[in-house]
Specification:
Number of strands: 9
Largest sheet: 5 strands, parallel
Radius of gyration: 22 Å
Bound molecules: adenine
CATH topology of the largest domain: Alpha/beta knot
Number of domains: 2
CATH architecture of the largest domain: 3-Layer(aba) Sandwich
CATH superfamily of the largest domain: SPOUT methyltransferase, trefoil knot domain
Strand content: 15-25%
Amino acid sequence: MRIDIITCLPRLLESPFNDSIVKRAQEKGMVTIHVHDLRQHTSDAHRTTDDYAFGGGAGMVMMIEPIHRCISALQSERSYDDIIYMSPDGELLTQAMANQLSMKQNLILLCGHYKGVDERVREHLITREISIGDYVLSGGELAAAVVADSVIRLLPGVLSDESSALTDSFQDGLLAPEVYTRPAEYEGWKVPEVLLSGNQAMIENWRYENALKRTQNRRPGLLDAK
Ligand code: ADE
């Protein structure tokens, strides 16, 4: 898989991909991530990427030309399955969406800033819009990092068996069950007996019941969707 991220603040994306699972996925060649500085695609000496909104009002708007030039340059090299604009008014990111995106070959993530992008970008240049939640971030970079992370960890071979994505929260429509590790008792606080029993069938059954109870308590809406 290849992920191209277009941003006017590339430094914001330096650290999220340089550690842990996402770093290892790149080292193993399962994904390549390319961050593109929008300023490299401007046509004026000042490298302008934004301008005042037509009609007035506070806040700058990202211009279409540098975005178009950057996307076209990428498309001249390969075709893309989706060109995604990160925006708080996009479709909400879910585990199902991450699963879907993990099956694609080439993705572009476009990060917005200020008041967002000229609407013609959304009308003509992108194929999809994603929000990571009902709150507003300073820009799309952190949201793009969240989408990339949620997708990359699902690529075959990225996670080892022990950390398999199949047992993640949401993967089966339930929250993940409680987990414990040594010591079996700490300051009088005990691990549930069944987990120490060695009876794998009983343990699996307990985990399922625990996940169900947790989901009922914390996110009952997830059960309605099942
Ligand atoms: N840009 C700003 N806020 C965002 C959000 N919640 N999701 C995606 N992109 C954003």
